[in-house]
Automatic annotation (TrEMBL), chain A:
SMART domains: PGAM (SM00855). The keyword Transmembrane helix does not apply. The gene is PFKFB4. InterPro entries: 6Pfruct_kin (IPR003094), 6Phosfructo_kin (IPR013079), His_Pase_superF_clade-1 (IPR013078), His_PPase_superfam (IPR029033), P-loop_NTPase (IPR027417), PG/BPGM_mutase_AS (IPR001345). This is 6-phosphofructo-2-kinase/fructose-2, 6-bisphosphatase 4 isoform X1. Residues 40-254 form the 6-phosphofructo-2-kinase domain. The keyword Disulfide bond does not apply. Keywords: ATP-binding, Hydrolase, Kinase, Multifunctional enzyme, Nucleotide-binding, Phosphoprotein, Transferase. The active site is at H262 (tele-phosphohistidine intermediate), E331 (proton donor/acceptor). Substrate binds at R261, H262, G263, E264, S265, E266, L267, N268, R311.
UniProtKB/TrEMBL annotation, chain B:
Residues 5-219 form the 6-phosphofructo-2-kinase domain. In the C-terminal section; belongs to the phosphoglycerate mutase family. GO terms for molecular function: 6-phosphofructo-2-kinase activity; ATP binding; fructose-2,6-bisphosphate 2-phosphatase activity. GO terms for cellular component: cytosol. The keyword Phosphoprotein applies. The active site is at H227 (tele-phosphohistidine intermediate), E296 (proton donor/acceptor). This is 6-phosphofructo-2-kinase/fructose-2, 6-bisphosphatase 4 isoform X3. Substrate binds at R226, H227, G228, E229, S230, E231, L232, N233, R276. InterPro entries: 6Pfruct_kin, 6Phosfructo_kin, His_Pase_superF_clade-1, His_PPase_superfam, P-loop_NTPase, PG/BPGM_mutase_AS. It comes from the Eukaryota. The keyword Nucleotide-binding applies. Keywords: ATP-binding, Hydrolase, Kinase, Multifunctional enzyme, Nucleotide-binding, Phosphoprotein, Transferase. SUPFAM superfamilies: P-loop containing nucleoside triphosphate hydrolases (SSF52540), Phosphoglycerate mutase-like (SSF53254). It comes from Aythya fuligula (Tufted duck).
Length: 474, 439
């Protein structure tokens, strides 16, 4: 009899929700197996913003946080200015920031420490992966303090500095995000601008920019002139590499992104999901209306993207302009449920149907995809949308929900239930720290394809309970 | 239609002293761009010089006051640029990599003007390195074996090459943040410790920068293999999500033993999300990461069929696939071309990592192998990736050493060669002639 093998292979069980194969010991999931896409960071990352006021630090912090959360990396930003506003109820003037204002310095240090404490709690106790510490951090001394804090707690620290001397850019920033700040709620625009310029001056004398020699052992990216050039030093791991790539692709040129679905399809009419059908009569009407709408908008250098499915391409064809087909914009693959009605899914796969309602984001169709998978495959689309200016994306319901969730910072739980009706264009325009949304219904009727989460998501629910929220169809 | 990455051709211009990795970067970047579907070609001016001046004598050829040398070198640069123009403007090339020292501002201006005249976007890639150990290592890796030094001893070659570098140093004008602020470029410092990136103009330049920032030169090996033989392999069926056969499980144990014996430092193990690769990894008893993008090619309506059944049910599809196996997409499935697109993040992460074992599938392994061995699209779908065989890839000089290790557990052959007759009117027998044996 041969000696026992070192360690016999564990049995595999398929997770019924995500359809992933996991090893188990005595009926319990075992370790040793990680899903790619989420496990990008082995130790938490502390991103530290650096720069004078009005250099885009908060803009970058919020955008980066939004992006990382969307791709599945739990991230949170900590704005020290906000801590200050919570502590010092009423902002008086720039004098608070004078370098010899002892009271001010004391309060500001207290706020920074309070924020760092919350960072520690988020990364070490609440399963956060990345924390973005948003403050000026303009002195080497302050950055050393933060770096030591990171080391003590086992975090990797990555600095993001924004350097800008162009007075026009700074003036525009002040208009965009400072005039409306709670600090200046009782001031006129001129008063606010004057005070803020003096605030910036308070920092200038002690500002120590990241230096190629003095800071050569730190990991950082220095963004110069709103992205004209970058200095990147010592990228340590995958997540830092992704952050650098993202930061190098975003821009602030004003533009709009138009999202819509294909026109109503033949399968939409029948309440069937997926497939590769053509447009219905009304869908073709919509395509013409879309062409008219786009013309009227008079958009400069509009790029048009579609999926590789017939219905989006048919829709784009009506525009009479060049368009690019992206396979990754194809609708979510419903696997064995392709071309079924919800009634048929309930009939044939009642368990699957219930599991999907329990966790619509993570649920993967048998031999198909999940919303979570969709986000992974759409990431290059988001990256290219960031690079581009005016774009119209003609896509599909689940795909549009994923893209919309990115722009509107919607969490995973809400994403699969975002309302993206047929024949409705969403015009997204970046403004201040977020995105303005205009919803334009193009006046061609279409079926409703939105199915709300039912009340009863238990696997033992009745057929009626399962189908209660199914929209009407032929 | 894939992402339209280049509306006008791109001219990449290498910059740097000798032995700074320019040719290494040129070749690697060219390989990557071609693999992701961007037609790219490199033009090494040193090669033009070797073709013109049959026998290299000494570093004196490169002395700054050697009129004859300067004349020949300028001639070679112009000949190379002429070939660049032909490739980009007449032969549908998208990217040309102009590999030469290009160390003076004057030379770079000439090239930039050439680009402008022809409607190319110019992007400079400079490699700056002062670490004498790195330079010495480069000389050993790629210069001692150069045709220039075929008749010299290592010491003679090194001494001559060091003097060659000196010839360039006095006139070297590095890319400057102020003087060159209107150019698009990346300056790579100290083999990737830091980068200066200026005015990235479009998508392809952004991708190039991302790639260059992720590659490294730390020695390591990449191990590629397929899952152990599966139950469907035995039956000659493609795709599906089957478990391992008895022999497949044997292989998994042999793989564990092989990996142990190799004594690999900090080995990462990656699998797909299909049962057969995960079962294989389980035998190793080490942590592994599951990547959905490593899943086998989706055969759509042909999933779990035998080739005989595909011929029976979809004879037209079967013939079309043989006509262009790289671009052919299964109905409701994927093509090899699609596979390459979805595997790109795997390649990027493989470049970042060091020692990695990738347990994947036949079509997936062919795509990854084609990247490392620079195989073109026509050959990729026919690369031999048999079951139970590990390929150990080790970067060396400008390429990749491959060692093939069969782990001594028998398995079916799953390789189907391209048949002679790929016409849609061929007979069943002609179509099935190259199908390997199965149960």
């Amino acid at each position: 009899m041969a000696a026992a093998a070192a360690s016999p292979s564990r049995e595999l069980t398929q997770n019924p929700l995500q359809k992933t194969w996991e090893p188990y010991d005595n009926g319990l999931p075992a370790g040793h197996s990680a899903q790619r896409g989420v496990c990008m960071t082995n130790c938490p990352t502390l991103i530290v913003m650096v720069g004078l006021p009005a250099r885009g630090k908060t803009y970058i912090s919020k955008k980066l946080t939004r992006y990382l959360n969307w791709i599945g990396v739990p991230t949170k930003e900590f704005n020290v200015g906000q801590y200050r506003r919570d502590l010092v109820k009423k902002y008086k003037s720039f004098e608070f920031f004078l370098p010899d204002n002892e009271e001010g310095l004391k309060i500001r240090k207290q706020c920074a420490l309070a924020a760092l404490n919350d960072v520690r709690q988020y990364l070490s106790e609440e399963n956060g992966h990345v924390a973005v510490f948003d403050a000026t951090n303009t002195t080497r001394e302050r950055r050393e303090t933060i770096y030591k804090f990171g080391e003590e707690n086992g975090y990797k620290t990555f600095f993001v500095e924004s350097v800008c001397v162009d007075p026009e850019v700074i003036a525009a920033n002040i208009v965009q995000v400072k005039l409306g700040s709670p600090d200046y709620v009782d001031c006129s625009n001129d008063e606010a601008t004057e005070d803020f310029m003096k605030r910036i001056e308070c920092y200038k004398n002690s500002y120590e920019t990241l230096d190629e020699t003095l800071d050569k052992d730190l990991s950082y990216i220095k963004i110069m002139d709103v992205g004209r050039s970058y200095l990147v030093n010592r990228v340590m791991d995958h997540i830092q590499s992704r952050i650098v790539y993202y930061l190098m692709n975003i821009h602030v040129t004003p533009r709009s992104i138009y999202l819509c679905r294909h026109g109503e399809s033949e399968l939409n009419l029948k309440g069937r999901i997926g497939g590769d059908p053509g447009l219905s009569v009304r869908g073709k009407e919509f395509a013409k209306s879309l062409a008219q709408f786009i013309n009227e908008q008079n958009i400069k250098d509009l790029k048009v993207w579609t999926s590789q499915m017939k219905r989006t391409i048919q829709t784009a064809e009506a525009l009479g302009v060049p368009y690019e087909q992206w396979k990754v914009l194809n609708e979510i693959d419903a696997g064995v449920c392709e071309e079924m009605t919800y009634e048929e899914i309930q009939e044939n796969y009642p368990l699957e149907f219930a599991l999907r309602d329990q966790d619509k984001y993570r649920y993967r169709y048998p031999k198909g995809e999940s919303y979570e998978d969709l986000v992974q495959r759409l990431e290059p689309v988001i990256m290219e949308l960031e690079r581009q200016e005016n774009v119209l994306v003609i896509c599909h319901q689940a795909v549009m929900r994923c893209l919309l969730a990115y722009f509107l910072d919607k969490p995973a739980e809400q994403l699969p239930y975002l309302k993206c009706p047929l024949h409705t264009v969403l015009k997204l325009t970046p403004v201040a720290y977020g995105c303005k949304v205009e919803s334009i219904f193009l006046n061609v009727e279409a079926v409703n394809t939105h199915r709300d989460k039912p009340e009863n998501v238990g696997v033992d629910r009745s057929r009626e309970e399962a189908l209660r929220t199914v929209p009407n169809h032929l």
